[in-house]
Design brief:
The protein is built from 18 helices and 17 strands. Helix 14 crosses helix 18, helix 15 (about 340-355) runs parallel beside helix 16 and helix 16 (about 380-395) runs antiparallel to helix 18. By secondary structure, the chain is α+β, with helices and mostly antiparallel strands. The chain is elongated, with a radius of gyration of 34 Å. It has helices at about 5-15, 40, 45-50, 55-60, 65-70, 75-80, 120-145, 165-170, 175, 180-185, 190-205, 245-260, 265-290, 295-330, 340-355, 380-395, 425-430, 450-460, and strands spanning about 20-25, 30-35, 80-90, 95-105, 110-120, 150-155, 160, 205-215, 220-230, 235-245, 340, 360-365, 375, 400-410, 410-420, 465-470, 475-485. The chain has 4 domains: about 5-120, Beta-Lactamase; about 125-245, 2-Layer Sandwich (Beta-Lactamase), CATH 3.30.450.20; about 250-330, Signal transduction histidine kinase, dimerisation/phosphotransfer (DHp) domain (Helix Hairpins); about 340-485, 2-Layer Sandwich (Heat Shock Protein 90).
């Protein structure tokens, strides 16, 4: 009968996450004891393994053998050592282990045996490897990113800049790394930097802050600056992209000054922009004056929801204006193709509109399955679907059904947005893609700048697709557009 103490020790060892072993000190080294949990972790029978003096040596990954035995030789001098290497399981899979071993001596100081443990650290090593790959990916993306990008510390010291940044500002990397943005004179309008810093401290990011940014020699540039606070290896850094829009802004200003024909449009735009702005200001004042007139939480949330909704309207109007400005000067809308899922975009847009327009029934019908992956710009196609569906809602009676029909061909995906609303006259159909043309939509109860369809057409064409509108007064409208599936088919506007 086995000693109870031995039984208890064996039981404890069997539950340990680490495999305990002992071995000879002198050459040739081989194991004299292995805990029974070897079977649990590696699949080998302990008794059979102990009969094989080469057992441990045979398990070590061939690429690790030399360094393992080099390390093992040091234990005689240090009395303790730990190292990491790979051991083979019975099924052939290799696991990373942390091997901690200690030299046991007798009372006279003579070596008796080596006692050690193997702890499975495979998950940790895989995490480390993934982190290394992630860091490499970040650095590769950072260096190849065509948009000027800069990484700085929270106190403004520059740590990294990419080639696009040095090309845009005329500074070399050596001239900027290790210096502050203030020393380099990037910000000559303190309020702009304070605005960015304040937003990052409060929210962790800021998007499209338009500011005067200064390159080498004090050269001014109008830039859109987007910044994020990111964790890089445990250190908080500010990652910023700096998009030079100087020439774009000059062209837009010149176009606005010269284009007298848009006077009526400007008037309409002012009205459309003012309407949500008035709502935002009004409800903001109500919230601001809460001290004098306490509000219920439900009422505050309602006001905030109204402000958010109108801010979104305002933002969409501004985005439309900016897009039209780009089109007017012959610029691309910045379509960037990437591999993504059309189904996700559809679900996102439809879900958003269903929440905001509960009285309208929006259904999605797939004639055949959508491709698993497709090359397109998710943001821009979201814009297209949102615009077309919003139009269908605006020009449909309350509760009117709206349907999205998709059809997949070998090289393209077709979308049809079908409503049973007011429909359009032949004249409006003919001019529907003309910028600023509103036709019957000029009815004061139907808001809009008349820009959306022109932008939609440009986006689809920038993808290499086509768009067609069919409509009849009183019967509804169908807008059909196609998108190429593969990137080699899509032809982006240069």
């Amino acid at each position: 009968m086995q000693d109870p103490l031995i039984q208890r020790i064996s039981h404890i060892l069997s539950l340990s996450p680490a495999i305990i072993y002992a071995g000879r000190v002198d050459e040739p080294f081989y194991l004299t004891f292995i805990s029974e949990n070897l079977t649990t972790h590696f699949g080998f029978d302990t008794k059979i393994c102990l009969r094989n003096p080469d057992f441990w040596r045979d398990l070590i990954h061939p690429d690790d053998v030399e360094c393992v035995f080099d390390d093992y030789a040091r234990i005689s001098a240090n009395g303790f050592h730990k190292h990491e290497y790979r051991l083979r399981k019975e099924d052939g899979e290799y696991l990373w282990v942390l091997d901690e071993l200690r030299l046991v001596r007798d009372a006279s100081g003579h070596p008796l045996e080596v006692v050690g443990s193997w702890l499975d650290i495979t998950d940790r090593k895989e995490t480390e490897e993934a982190l290394q790959k992630s860091e490499k990916l970040f650095r590769d993306f950072f260096q190849t990113n065509p948009v000027a990008t800069i990484v700085s510390s929270t106190d403004g010291v520059v740590h990294m800049v990419n080639p696009a940044f040095t090309g845009q500002t005329d500074f070399t990397a050596e001239e900027v790394v290790g210096r502050t943005a203030q020393e380099l004179g990037f910000w000559q309008i303190p309020e702009d930097r304070e605005r960015m810093v304040s937003a990052i401290q409060k929210f962790g990011f800021i998007d499209n802050l338009e500011s005067q940014f200064y390159g080498k020699g004090g050269r001014p540039m109008t830039c859109l600056i987007s910044s994020r606070a990111v964790d890089l290896g445990g250190d908080i850094r500010i990652l910023s992209i700096v998009q030079d829009v100087t020439e774009q802004r000059k062209a837009e200003a010149a176009l606005l000054k010269l284009d007298q024909a848009k006077t009526a449009f400007i008037s309409t735009a002012a009205h459309e922009l003012r309407t949500p702005l008035i709502a935002i200001v009004g409800y903001s004042e109500l919230l601001e004056n809460e001290a004098g007139l306490p509000l219920e939480e439900e009422q505050k949330q309602e006001y905030l929801s109204i402000i958010q909704s109108n801010a979104e309207i305002l933002n969409r109007l501004v985005d439309d204006l900016l897009d039209v400005g780009r089109i007017q000067i012959g610029s691309s809308l910045g379509v960037v193709l990437k591999e993504a899922q059309l189904s996700e975009v559809i679900e996102k847009v439809v879900g958003s509109l269903r929440v905001k327009n509960e009285r309208h029934r929006i259904t999605v019908v797939h004639t055949n399955p959508l491709p698993e992956r497709c090359w397109f710009d998710p943001g821009r196609i979201t814009q297209v679907l949102y615009n077309l569906l919003s139009n269908a809602i605006k020009y449909s009676p309350q509760g009117g059904p709206i349907e999205i029909q998709t059809t997949t061909a070998p090289e393209t995906v077709s979308f049809a947005i079908v409503d049973q609303g007011l429909g359009m006259s032949p004249e409006l159909v003919e001019n529907v893609f003309d910028r600023f043309y509103r036709g019957e939509a000029a009815d004061a109860e139907i808001h809009g700048l008349g820009l959306g369809m022109g932008i939609v057409k440009q986006i689809i064409e920038d993808h290499g697709g086509e768009i067609v509108v069919k409509s009849c007064l009183g019967e509804g409208t169908t807008v059909t557009f196609t998108l190429p599936i593969k990137p080699e088919i899509a032809t982006l506007k240069s």
